[in-house]
Amino acid sequence: MADKNNKHLFGSGHTACAGCGQAIAARLAVDVAGANTIIANNTGCLEVFSTAYPQSAWGVPWIHSLFENAAAVASGIEAGLKYLGIKDKINVIAQAGDGGTADIGLQALSGMWERGHDILYICYDNEAYMNCLSLSTLIFTKDGLKKITDIKVGDEIYAFDQKTHQLVLKECSGVFDNGVKEVFELKTRHQAIKATGNHPFLVLKRNGRGRQNVLTWKTLENIKPGDRVVTLKKIEDGSPYKFPEIDKVEKGDYKVNKLNEINIPEQSNPGVMKYLGIFIGDGWRRQGRGEVGFAVPAGKKAREVLLDLHRKIFDSKISEDKEYVYINSVNLIKFIDTLGMGVGAKNKNIPGWVFTLPQEQRESFIEGLMLADGYDLKTSKRYVSANLDLLKRLRLLLQTMDYRVGKIHTQKKLKGALCVKRRLLADSEYGYICFSRKKGKNVKAYPTQSRYADFLVENKFFQTEEVISIESNGLEPTLDLRVEDEHNFIADGIVVHNTGVQRSGLTPFESATSTTPIGAQSVGNPRPKKPMPEIAVAHGVVYVATASAGYPRDIQNKVKKAISLKGPKYIQIHVPCPLGWRHDPQITYDIGKLAVETGLYPLIEYEFGKLTNARKLSQIKPVEEYLKFQGRFKHIMASAELIKQIQAVADYNIDRYGLRAEAAKPSQTQPSNTPSKA
Amino acid sequence: MRELLEGSQAVAEAVRLCKPGVISAYPITPQTHIVEELASMVAQGKLKSEFVNVESEHSAASVVLGSVATGVRSFTATSSQGLLLMAEVVFNISGMRLPVVMTCANRAISAPLNIWNDHQDAITVRDSGWIQMHAETIQEALDLHIQAYRIAEAPKIMLPVMVNMDGFILTHGLEVVDVPTQEQVDNFLPAYRPLYKLDVENPLTLGPLVGPEYYMEARFAIQETLKDVLGLIPLIQGEFQKGFGRPSGGLVEPYRIDGAEKVIVAMGSVCGTIKDVVDSLRAKGKKVGCLRVVTYRPFPAAEICRALKDVSRVAVLEKAVSLGSYSPLLSEIRSCFSGKKKSPVISGFVIGLGGRDISLDSIKEVFKRLGPKPVSEEFIDLKPELLVEKI
What we know:
The structure holds two protein chains of two kinds. By secondary structure, chain A is of the alpha+beta class. Chain A folds into three domains: 21-130 and 504-657, Thiamin diphosphate (ThDP)-binding fold, Pyr/PP domains (Rossmann fold, 3-Layer(aba) Sandwich); 133-233 and 461-497, Endonuclease - Pi-scei, Chain A, domain 1, CATH 2.170.16.10; 270-437, Endonuclease I-creI. In chain A, β22 (418-419) and β23 (422-423) form a beta hairpin. The radius of gyration of chain A is 32 Å and the shape is elongated. Chain B folds into two domains: 2-244, Thiamin diphosphate (ThDP)-binding fold, Pyr/PP domains (Rossmann fold, 3-Layer(aba) Sandwich); 252-386, Rossmann fold, CATH 3.40.50.920. A seven-stranded mixed beta sheet of chain B has the order 3-2-4-5-7-6-13, sandwiched between helices. Chain B is α/β, with parallel strands linked by helices. Classes of the chains: A alpha+beta, B alpha/beta. The interface between A and B is large, with 49 and 46 residues.
């Protein structure tokens, strides 16, 4: 429980996101209301981040019951205090987010107003029911490794079970485009991932001697080098991959008069995998000539293995010379084309399904790769390739097989250097990685030390790894996923948290949330904001006000005025949500201010049904000033027509509440789409 | 003082004697008369209480949740759809360990819309952690409300109690009842002294977010407390008898089951009819009896087993169904005998749904159909002419 002597009645140490406008406003409100206050809180962000048992941030008596009944619970508290004869000494506050107020909680709130309870109701309006990864992120799914851009809703994704610490499969229930953002690269000794600063990762929290260590979510910007993040070390042993059936070319088909008879295997086995490993390293295919070739010189071990494998598996004619091996078969090309390995030295890659194979077949595949482009060093192995994407995927593959893998080293070969018997025509970059079998820790002999070094040392699938560096990687487009139940997934081998922001009745016109996504047929939330302050006024509420986290003193003044009056009161505070609105957490105040300065969120007061005050604006800014900093409006920034519609909402407010500081000008544009005030 | 009172009036009198500080309810037939009566008592100054007229049952339950959390004894009443609408709060009240007392005037659940009596509403929230007791008579309904506050507010219990009384049959029936004096009730029921409350002198956080590390223990604690309730209820019953001279309440009530071969198990007002049939059959030398389940939650399995162990055939008569399965009371009574060496043949009958009249003949029919082979979900008094399939 919070310390009573704490300066604030809403203590620090809660788990709100950085820059959360709601946390700021809630603290301002309770501090003004004072210690003689009882709060009833609806379910929502505020409740969740302030009262995760056994901690609580509240220094006043505080109760939470359900999502929609804070107004009714507060009515009961007020009635109880009246019965006890102490209501005059105690303030009752009911508070909720905008969903708990304007949607599901509206009925109970309307009842509270109508019955005239002496309660101040505060709505923290973050305009939605409330992180993202770089587009190059690779996700572990049931069907193998996939690019985040290829993930679809319904895909089964590997996740970290936070209770049992095991690897589990969960369904993906949403994919979100989060716009262009600054992306950071987090590196551990063996892994690397690019993500935005507010993306949460699973981090080990050491609780000190004699106490149990725990895993907690931390946003990337709060992670420091030296922290240990949870990473994947192994995935379950899969089953052999059933190759897709190919439409075999037969003799007599168009242009085919001579057919090289060939056997096509039905499913993967160690031999085929080794063969494909060599192909990725040294193979090519030429569609036009119906030719598959391998650049393996005679006398090299790879040539011997390749010929042997080919005879055993495909059993077709081979021609060879000193440098190359050729197989002429249209059907072999067709087969290789179905495997998703890409064409050309720079594009060939390890297909996702390889990640789902049994360990033995994955090992054979690595052997094949090593035969083509590998070097056996004494203590480790080195794989060299000019294809950095291939190296990244190989690195992930090795990590799922319990290998130690070093980082990708890059080197340059200058123009004119000899490379595969030819002189380079331009400077060329290539890379390599080194890997070796992991030496198991002797957990039995050194249990404490081993567990200190790696909290999850006895875990079959996961380990903790030290963060080495976090560096900005500039602006990049980002995506995020939502995963059922576990709300996490494994990206680039690291466990990360998923997202969630849904539409409410106070979600403004045209903004994008996960339940009002943007698409060809939609420009976001189709309806303007519900006019809650006017609905309150219509109930005969004695004091109605709007406020903004951008104006802290104004919040305090309004709360002070509200609690000095008897009867039902309603204050709606505009609280920017960096996570949901997708803005930089450092500009929460500025975003709040801009909403007011553009006229989109007028600060008004109604006393006993009359509009008594509206904050005047000496300089009215265009709405773009407010919109441009927020990811949720990204999609409309390109359309002058849509911006015009939002400007019309602001103009309507400016006119309706007389926000212009100088002599009131006549109304400009009356919007056609019936917008209401903020 | 003995008075001729309507069931709802009698309950209102009992509630008045318990002196709740906050009453909140939304009217629904057949509970309406109870809260109307209480509202008029408050208006006339007979009862000093805050009466909160809410806009829905969801809010009615939320208001008493809030007032009990503030440390004030509170009361609400509902029925049928109202109970289902407040179901979310019902689970919340028991989970937060708040000793609310609520009357449920038992009524059928829509659709088809029906305002008459059966037990489907209370049965539907049986897993909520509430203590559920069923009254047979108006006198018992009155008495159970006084006992309910004692049980709910016991410092070791702190769980809500739902007093069930059959809609219309008890709520709108007239009976001569003994209304206890304020002194009698005050001696039996001390003022509510909450263990925890919303208090500015000692600020507590109630209803926090609880992760997987703590949730199971909170639920387990309720399960264990309900076992204690099984021990407490007979004690309260004994104490009540001493103070008021009536053995109302308790866990189960056996009626002429000594040496009985066939016994009907049931809950609520229908037991009055069953007892009459038992008397008339006993007069003819038939060995029959009745076992009334008074406390349905926590479920008094041991007492039921003890009462029925020497009986050869048992009919469980229920005013509720678990559609698609065996009725709740039937499956629970069968399961209490599982693993026992000796068990009666237990059959299940459904009766009186949606207020279908239960006559003496209906009960005789149950005894007649209670054969050596167990049957389940036998509906009594069905009208075959309504069941003809129409194209």
